[in-house]
Design a protein that fits this description.
This protein is α+β, with helices and mostly antiparallel strands. The chain has three helices and five strands. The protein has a five-stranded mixed beta sheet with strand order 2-1-5-3-4, with helices on one face. The longest helix has 15 residues. InterPro entries: Mopterin_synth/thiamin_S_b, RnfH, RnfH_sf.
Amino acid sequence: MESVNLESTSYKAGAILNIQVCYALPNVQTLVYLQLPVGTVLYDAILASKISSIHPQIHLAQQRVGVFGQARSLYSVLENGDRVEIYRPLIVDPKLARSLVVQKRRTKRVIFYRSL
């Protein structure tokens, strides 16, 4: 578990963090703005956002989370201005998806032959 360095966060009595919690589906993005106390961890921010009531398919035990595209532990301490992201599980392995795209492009090529 990470600890909070109160000197680096310019801690003041009653200090708050402005945090966003984000979950995106292919056709909709949900963004919840929160003000939470200094020392809050990702897990607490996600619970406070109540985003799982909007998207019941979220299962934190199975999904990865992060801040600004960088994977983090559920118990990472947040900083002011952080955007907590809940990542959807991959449907297709990225390497397999890329090879399927390349294969599809190869089959679409038309080759013209000149007869002499």
